[in-house]
Amino acid sequence: MAMPHTIQWGILGTGNIARQFAEALRLLPDAGLRAVGSRSRGSADAFARAHGVARAYGSYEDLAKDPEVEVVYIATPHHLHKDNSLLCLEHGKAVLCEKPFTLDAQEGALIAAKAREKGLFCMEAMWNRFVPIMRELDARLAAGAIGDVRMLNASLGLPFAFNPQHRVFAPAMGGGALLDLGVYPVSFALRLFGRPTRITSHAVLGETGVDEQVSILLDFPEGRQATLGASVRNRLQNDAAVLGTRGMLHLHEPLNCPETLTHVPTRAIGGADTPLQPPHTLTRKVLGNGYAHEAVEVMRCMREGLLESPLMTLQETLLIMETMDAIQAAWRLSARTGCPSAGAAPGAG
């Protein structure tokens, strides 16, 4: 069988996430890392030397104009995602944009519209969406392994040393627990249950004004609920429990790149006294650091002529951003008025 056409990548940005993605691409024989772009030529040159990149550009625009680059991975801080993605799309490049897609739903809609206008592939790089264990989770849910799925408990929290200049604590850079880490449990909940009907959230705002920890309750049709948490000041459980009428599927930590799933069967108290199978745990290792699975999906879609991935559609990305907007609106209003946060639905207000 012939080797598929090698798709040429560009990486926009030279930070830690860009380095990890470059390492992931090296594991894929059908992916070529053609160019890197930075606002600093020195940074681009150093990155290119470290990762064997053929071309280094001292501006984002020069990378976007490279005629041999087919798809660009956007690896810049959150507040730059909109402009960087639009730049690449305008110059005819497919886009894989690091999560969160943008700062808000309005920005996200601009990118989605531009991708559709240009007829170009575009996808949010939601790390955990593409790892192998998620296919195992999907298969068990589709088979009804835990009955009627009613609830989700999920969290992601990592302790960052406080530094007001760090992007996580800088409001102008889209800092805060929700955008940086909370997007994982939020996207997981929407993946399970769809659009929430009511949102309740509470946040602890730090001295720079960003949300340092957030607690979220999402209500969905037919009484389904998700209880979610995110923090940049302390470690949380960093896992997910999908709870049904006949059991639990426990996705072990780390939630952002899981490899292990445990199925815990249960039965109703007072119901039929049927034998229960013991809990069963399975592991599906990720390739390298896990980012390669995103690239594999992008290239599969591009080769098949798809403009979106069925695993992470633009419609779902925009719903995530709408939901994040509503989550923030609830506690930002509370912070201004001193009143308890109110529930809200995406697009409400």
From TrEMBL:
Give the protein's recorded name.
Predicted dehydrogenase
Per the record, the similarity remark reads: Belongs to the Gfo/Idh/MocA family.
Keywords assigned: Oxidoreductase
Q: Where is the organism placed in the taxonomic lineage, from the top?
A: Bacteria, Pseudomonadati, Myxococcota, Myxococcia, Myxococcales
Q: Which residues form the GFO/IDH/MocA-like oxidoreductase domain?
A: 135-249
Q: Which GO terms describe its molecular function?
A: nucleotide binding; oxidoreductase activity
User: What Pfam families does the annotation carry?
Assistant: GFO_IDH_MocA (PF01408), GFO_IDH_MocA_C3 (PF22725)
Entry-linked InterPro entries: Gfo/Idh/MocA-like_OxRdtase_N (IPR000683), Gfo/Idh/MocA_domain (IPR050984), GFO_IDH_MocA-like_dom (IPR055170), NAD(P)-bd_dom_sf (IPR036291)
Q: Where is the Gfo/Idh/MocA-like oxidoreductase N-terminal domain?
A: 7-123
Record the organism. Stigmatella erecta
